[in-house]
Amino acid sequence: MKLLLSLLLAVSIIPQPKAVEEKKGAFLLDGKTAVVARHSEFAETAADFRADVALSTGFDLPEHKSWCGKAIILKHKSSIPEEGYILKVTRRKVVVKASDAAGAFYGLQTFRQLLPGAIYAKEPVDTLWEAPCCRIEDSPRVSWRGMQLDCCRYFYPKEAVLDFLDMMAMHKQNRFHWHLTEDQGWRIEIKKYPLLTEVGAWRDETCGYDGPGDGIRHGGFYTQDEIREVVEYARHRHITVVPEIELPGHSSAAIAAYPFLSCTPNQPKKVNTYWGIKDDVYCPSPETFKFLEDVFDEVLELFPSPWYHIGGDECPKTAWRKSDYCKRLASELGLESVDDLQYYFVKHFDAYLRERGKTVIGWDEILDGSAVESTVVMSYRGHNPAIKAMNRDMKVILCPNRFCYYDYHQNEIADTFKNHHLFITLRKAYNYNPTGFIGDSLMQAKGDLILGYQACVWGEYIPDVPQLEHQTYPREAAIAEFCWSADDRRNFDDFRMRLLKEFDRLDARHINYSRAYWNVIVNMNLESDYPREVELTLDYPFAEIRYTTDGTEPTAASPVAPATLTVNEGDCIRAQGFMADGTPVGVPMTRIFQKQPYSKH
Prior knowledge:
disordered C terminus; alpha/beta; disordered N terminus; eight-stranded parallel β-barrel; TIM Barrel; Immunoglobulin-like; 19 helices; Chitobiase, domain 2
């Protein structure tokens, strides 16, 4: 217990800074602590810090241009790298030095993490606001440190999006990829086309992939005023909001609103109630292009981001192959087949957006066939698309689904097997290493083409905000540290220690994060035959795993699990963590080893 207490009192920052030097003593934040911005560029950052701290402390910290007493001081230093900072905490002063406002902001985020976790509460908390004295020097590893949120399968209110941004800011993430249009719902108000939200934002029910419907009408959308509020909120947190307007596939919600966008406009249309890939996609007609240009013209007024995502994934060519118009168009354009109309789509809107100062991003299907090399490839189907793009000298953002899709479960539960073993443990998310897939030689030669990385939170099985939080946290901290911290500063054993204070922060914000950290997890090669080697792991560092093989519930007297176990088909293992005093940790794990259908998705 003394060790646990000392860890909570020590410097415990996520993501791990580049260099930390701990000092004796502590800085006490109180209502008389001044906030001083010595550079005009930092004035807004100082004001935002005062407002954030006021929520949890109740302090109305004085603002000064200069101050001799106890203070938090923001100073400009041009030699510090972009987004980097130097933070020095003494008993009387907190000094943040940075060359830009983002660096000053991140320095203050680090200082907040030095304080008790309650500093992130949204209501006043009565506690001693002490931060350990230290010196921290820090800067990010990559420029693109992202999170994607799918608000189309289920609609999450604006307040949930703002909370999502707050958590990103806490961990120094800076790209919010906002998935706003889909087959199951159109979520952004377009004034020229009101039916997009009157019709396209709502579906009759939700049926999943192959199950019965729930009989509940689902939907919602963000008004343009709400979009502006989110974008401005993000700007204050140095987060760029990257909108995604899907084309040419995943477009049936728009088609339900305006059937002329389809190759079969006279057939009945409705917003899809089932998940999965839909054959009804945008027809590459002048009317469709005009519609999408009109949509982008309104979107351009809302999002100042230099990057725009146009989807480009999972577009069946079935409707095009059946269309006489598409066949004629492909022939007139000199394309080898109607399948190349995908390239025609991407090329047109890449040019349209580049003329307006934007860089287009697309899912890695934009590489299929003829690629538009001015686009950025978001590689999600593993790493081969990234390799293909890098060999063409195209820029890449990595979010491989096996490591970065946070709709996958965080530990093995019964439903996991219905979803083909798709689960990503905290440990697996943290230990992601793209070099092992891309190769040392390509990484050394062209690694600078990788802008960065992001995690994606797809919404098919996330019907509400509590489940959204459960799927996202604490794994969001893992991808944040991977993006920010250098390889030699990242270590899972150290990270899982620092998570203990991270949970205090999440608790202060009433986040419904996953408790898989305290549960035993089975790790194994799902493709191997029986007998099979398995490993039992527990992220919580202060407990031992005890297990049984006879079906009885494990106790503190059960054997300690070895490093690996050999199991046969039909074997049953039950396991749980126990403290030295016999106190159980988490919930018992029961696993019967059976052959399961395996998917490489």
